[in-house]
Design a protein that fits this description.
By secondary structure, the protein is mainly alpha-helical. It has nine helices and no strands. α1 packs antiparallel against α2 and α2 runs antiparallel to α4. The relative contact order is 0.05. Keywords: Membrane, Transmembrane, Transmembrane helix.
């Protein structure tokens, strides 16, 4: 009996975690709740029956009714067995409470199987919305096109999308060119290409100083001293 009580306690914890998971999903239907609750009522009823059977452990003192620790209390127990007597009575009381609790769960689950007026109205509204959506899809222009025609139409729409504009402010035709990163400039000059100041029409620093201070034709900048 002790092993059976431990087993149903572990099973109850597992079913509690399973019910919490089903409730959060949410797929914890009333029929599932009723089935789990009736199973829990059954196993705890078996435990209660085993705890309330007559005590035949001592052939010389056979008790036909409830065990002595339930019918007469723990006042007759030895001091060494008083704690065990209280534990047995506590287990019996907890079993009764669990049977009452799961019985309430079962009754509430059975009652919840019948929808209320608000639930009926909500289901009717969802059903009407699904019917209207189905009618709209039936009159869709895509139903008159084949799969190849739909694919070609989508391809043309993709090709006609606006292209990404170039970065402005770098000159060039149309007022825009792709920006040049420092790495691009370095590799271009190493390969013998024109740098950004030569290739994009940007004046060099020496040209700017010559235009500002009026340097000679030899390109030398006058001494600032």
């Amino acid at each position: 009996m002790v092993q059976f009580n431990i087993a149903i306690a572990v099973l109850s914890m597992f079913l509690l975690l399973a019910k919490a998971t089903l409730y959060l999903l949410p797929i914890y239907l009333p029929v599932i709740s009723a089935f789990i609750s009736i199973v829990e009522v059954a196993i705890y009823a078996v435990s209660l029956k085993n705890q309330s059977t007559p005590d035949h452990s001592y052939p010389a003192h056979i008790i036909s009714g409830l065990p002595w620790y339930l019918s007469k209390g723990c006042s007759y127990a030895d001091p060494a067995n008083y704690g065990f007597c209280m534990q047995a009575r506590a287990v019996f009381g907890v079993t009764c409470v669990m049977i009452a609790l799961f019985s309430c769960y079962f009754i509430w689950s059975v009652v919840s199987m019948w929808p209320t007026a608000a639930e009926r109205a909500e289901r009717k509204a969802h059903k009407q919305s699904d019917i209207e959506l189905k009618r709209v899809n039936e009159y869709s222009p895509d139903n008159e096109l084949s799969r190849e025609e739909i694919w070609e139409r989508n391809r043309q729409m993709f090709l006609n999308l606006p292209k990404t504009p170039n970065t402005p402010g770098f000159g060039g035709r149309g007022g825009g060119m792709s920006p040049m990163t420092p790495r691009t400039v370095a590799f271009t000059q190493l390969n013998g290409g024109a740098g950004p100041s030569q290739g994009m029409g940007m004046p060099s620093t020496r040209q700017q100083l010559r235009d500002r201070f009026g340097g000679g034709g030899d390109g030398r900048v006058p001494d600032a001293r």
